[in-house]
User: Fold this.
Amino acid sequence: MANSARTRRLLAALIASAALLGSSLSSALAVSVVGDGTDDNLTGWQNACVRADGGTDQAIEHCNDNSTSEDEDDVADDGDTDSNDGGSRRQANEPFVVFDPTDSNTLVAGWNDYSMSDLGAGWQGFGYSRNGGETWVRSYVPGYPADTSAEGMASPLYGNHTEAGDPIAAFDNDGNLYVGGISFNRGGAISGHVFVARYDAADVAITGAPDYPADYQFTRIVGVGTPSRNFWGIFQDKPMLEVDRTANPDTEGNVYVCWSRFTGNGQNKIFFSRSTDGGDTYSRPRQLTVHGFSGSVQGCDISIEGDGDLYVTFRTFADGSVPAGNALYFVRSTDGGASFSRPSKVRSITPYEPRDGFRDCGDGPFACASGYVFARVPLEPRSTADQSNAANGVWLVYNEVDPDTITAAATSYRSAGPGRVGRSVVYVVYSTDDGATWSDPVKVDNAGGVGHQFFPDIDALGGSLAVIWQDSRFDACYSLQRPMGNTADATACADDNVVNTFVATSSNGGASWSSVRVSDVGHQPNFEMFGNRDIPFQGDYNWISLVDTNGSTAGGLEAYGVWTDNRDVVVGEDPREAEQDGFDVLQCRVDLGAEAASGSPSSTYNGPLFRSDAPFSGDHCGNGGGLNQNIYGNRVSVP
Assistant:
């Protein structure tokens, strides 16, 4: 065992050296991390949690509460399933980040926030930094169940939804902010909606929230779901949002939203809506996937060229309902979203889709035949255009399997289609002729042919491009035949430096790239923090935003990227397992069977049972660090 561990460490060192060399040969000094040189923790418990109006409520207090105890809940009827635990060290994932174009030191971020878990809710986190990302303040989008503010209780989300997530955002040229997402209920009437909230440009000096970067105004429902159960009705999901910041007088200030509309029969479609009055009203949603697209499309994104032309990109699936199979598509509008072209194909792809019967593999009811543990890695293509440049051009980033790496699967685990495995690589394609033709795919960073790359995002500004992604090139246990961070015997890799985050920039339209690692610590992506501590989850995306720091003069561009990170998770053992696999996190459970045998019947247990596996109770130290998944970020210079 010792020799095996030493071999893995040596292999990791060799892989790391080769990967760093391969990523920096072309222009080692072209892109670099700036600021204090360390990763910024956006969601850590050390960051104050405030409400937009300066008030407080149970959710704000829970967000600021770092307490934890293994004791059973001894407080009745307070709405908290575990009153001995706060909510400050709970999961966060699926982040966005955007620069305020009127102030390059102001950043706003959002994420799926689980700090209200013990209060029976999950909500959309809202964070801000006034010093370029070095320090952050946490908050929430108004309208959550425990919100007692006048603005929050006036939100159409309040009282109707217990969950809000899939956060998205964009500023307009004047510093007004639009924040969107989905809202729904996990049980009962699901009612999955798409919403957009507007914040006016204003520094709101309130008690406990100094220099709150924007003044919340209202929330609007853009796409309406149905109140059916078990997601069998209409459920709006996976939205994206963009605002026109061009100088086009006919389109500047328009707010555009796209999303996937799912129905119980599986016939999902891409829908679109726009606002031409500052987000006060939105057009009736229109379907963009028409003319032969009968289902299995998702992953839309919005990009706007400098002349105001609008693109909505998305992907299709090879399931028989779409003639295109696995492919990337787009539609284009030249009139500010009033009308669109028919869908046009960009190219076919081979999706990187880790599966072993299911896309989420873990323990208990989520155990898969291979025994491997892994989080889902959906393919969500992202697109961008340079709104500051009147010259046409649109770029699309995505990860897919490098065709030269595809080989037969050795187990039931697969990643490149049935019976096949392959290496996931981030590619960029672009068009400079309004989508009439597209470039051949360009690898952003081949990393010496080692490791998987996933969750890319892209932004364009001032003639430069920036891409962010997560990358397993340093995984000491890397093999095409198994998921990231897994050993051959389906246990966690002894070295937690499995996944890191990289940023690449290009100043020649995406023809070539220079990359740098922006995470100073790697992490294990497969800690089992979800599904009653049985499965991992890293979210579905990361985000990067560009800003001009000195009025378009040379060298004035910077980018800020954010990602989901498990470095702060406290590992532990799962008492329900006879053999530990190394992916388990700190948890506190009562053996109800042992209690009953000792004369203390399980019916007397007062801890949380809403996530219990008989004969064990649920985890009642959720704030002890076992769920401490955070959003990290960093800033880089862009040549």
